[in-house]
Amino acid sequence: MKRAEKNKLIEWGFTRFNRFFLRYHFEQIHLWKDSKEIPNKRTLFLINHSTWWDPLLIFYLNDQIVQSEGYAMMSEKGMKKHPFFQKVGGYSINAELRRDMIESLQYSIQLLNEDKTVWIFPQGQEEHLEKRPLEFFSGTAYIAEHSEDVNVVPISLYYSLEHSRRPNVYVRIGEPVKNSSFSSLNRKELSNLLEDLATKQLDELREAVIQERHNLFDQQFRRWKEQ
């Protein structure tokens, strides 16, 4: 397992590159927040994973919206291919090796208990955007149940080609699920609860995009030329 080795100078540079890169490639980034207050400590963010763009978007969301000391779990294969992410808060997990996997899960819990935020793709790999239901690996519930006073926040990402040359990104940040609301559940029940919440939220986001319900979204994240 490879732990994060944050470098402030690299983070500073990547933050600015990433803002420009996303604004150049996407027409708009639309944000729908279920809660006015998004916790930025002791919070486990769960994001559906369907494209190469997802890690860049969660880095952008943490930079621009959540503004936390954030860390992100990524596959061992992905870390080896893109070791740069280790310098901006990425750490690895290898689900094929039990010892390595447990170490990664314990590291996630440690970060949360130190008031950090942890961002993970609970599906464990890229899946088609329209695949249902969302299925989470059991480590997601393990992290949540072993962390002290943790919030769990589902984030839905949906990509859409509409009335412009560039695609749009729609983001929904769900209501925080507080530890007190799931502390009595066993791991399987908790995993099912989180899967159901994330699936329902993604489906509602998809329907809002199809129906062009733009009033639900914050439009401040328009393309770079408008900022």
TrEMBL record:
InterPro entries: Plipid/glycerol_acylTrfase (IPR002123)
One GO CC annotation: plasma membrane
Keywords carried by this UniProt record: Acyltransferase, Transferase
SMART domains tied to this protein: PlsC (SM00563)
Sequence ranges assigned to domain Phospholipid/glycerol acyltransferase in this UniProt record: 43-160
GO BP field: phosphatidic acid biosynthetic process
GO MF annotation: an example: 1-acylglycerol-3-phosphate O-acyltransferase activity
Protein name listed in UniProt: Glycerol acyltransferase
